[in-house]
Amino acid sequence: MKPVILDVDTGLDDACALLLAARHPDLDLKAVTCVGGNVGIDDVVRNTLTVLDAAGRPDVPVARGAAVPLIQPVTSARHVHGEDGLGDLDWPRSTRSTDPRHAVELLRDVLRDAAATGERITLIPLAPLTNIALLLRTYPDVAAGLQEIVFMGGSAGIGNATASAEFNVWTDPEAAAIVLAAANDLGIAATMYGLDVFYDVVVTLEQARGLTGSPSAELARKLIEKRSERYQSDGGSIGDGGAVCAVIDPSGLTTQPHPVRIELSGGWSRGRTIVDTRDALDVASDPQGPAPVVQVATAVDGKRYAELWLATVS
Ligand code: BDR
Ligand code: CA
């Protein structure tokens, strides 16, 4: 089994990712950490516990993390995920409590334990990178417990929060810049599962209709229905769930190594991920110096990943 940790701002599509990670037999879900993003941290925590309950995994430790971005004011995506972040569904909400540790402390402890036993954990951030930036700045030794970071964020093309920027990076650009730089300095491999593939793993409403018979399947169907409503189509993308598929089945994802910079200045391009696709000579002679190299996802086998998701959550 592959040990993984998810960092989430649950979120309809984070919920798709959680159901998959909690139920797939090849993954060992060690912990889930929460960060403010799609909605405020209280709703994120409650949604996360609710989804893990539906998945039949109340054993997974969940910790509350950063409520606000490092520098800029908090934002939200309620127009995408509903007022409560989980589509305002008629669904019983969890009343369980979280792990007493802050998300950064839980991440530190789980990764240090892994390092001590020779285990290597794949970290899957699906949200603004605030918790992960704080972690890598405060406890860089946790790199020894990390296999790689596969994060949902960024775009080589257009954005969604703004014309330039993808929501997770837009929400906390400084955190994204810190994480890419730290991963580069600490020798942690990073994969950017960005908007270039994010919308391409679609479950049709017809497929979703077959999801019945267990709390996980029922919730999964409702999530797809909500996603399809939001995008006014006859199917819903599992969004963040695709990044978890990529960890389970990396051969369904095409990536290319590219230097990536985060635009931190103000103006219309703040939060943009500048993916450098120039030839090696131009990159090497860039007067700004080298940028962190990231595996950038450029294509995904959407049909295969949708089937993987369906088979696991049902
Ligand atoms: C990202 O933003 C959030 O709304 C989604 O959960 C996803 O992580 C897509 O830009
Ligand atoms: Ca998310």
UniProtKB/TrEMBL annotation:
<dbReference type="InterPro" id="IPR023186">
    <property type="entry name" value="IUNH"/>
</dbReference>
<dbReference type="GO" id="GO:0006152">
    <property type="term" value="P:purine nucleoside catabolic process"/>
</dbReference>
<dbReference type="InterPro" id="IPR036452">
    <property type="entry name" value="Ribo_hydro-like"/>
</dbReference>
<protein>
    <submittedName>
        <fullName>Pyrimidine-specific ribonucleoside hydrolase</fullName>
        <ecNumber>3.2.-.-</ecNumber>
    </submittedName>
</protein>
<dbReference type="GO" id="GO:0005829">
    <property type="term" value="C:cytosol"/>
</dbReference>
<feature type="domain" description="Inosine/uridine-preferring nucleoside hydrolase">
    <location>
        <begin position="4"/>
        <end position="306"/>
    </location>
</feature>
<keyword id="KW-0326">Glycosidase</keyword>
<dbReference type="InterPro" id="IPR001910">
    <property type="entry name" value="Inosine/uridine_hydrolase_dom"/>
</dbReference>
<dbReference type="Pfam" id="PF01156">
    <property type="entry name" value="IU_nuc_hydro"/>
</dbReference>
<dbReference type="GO" id="GO:0008477">
    <property type="term" value="F:purine nucleosidase activity"/>
</dbReference>
<keyword id="KW-0378">Hydrolase</keyword>
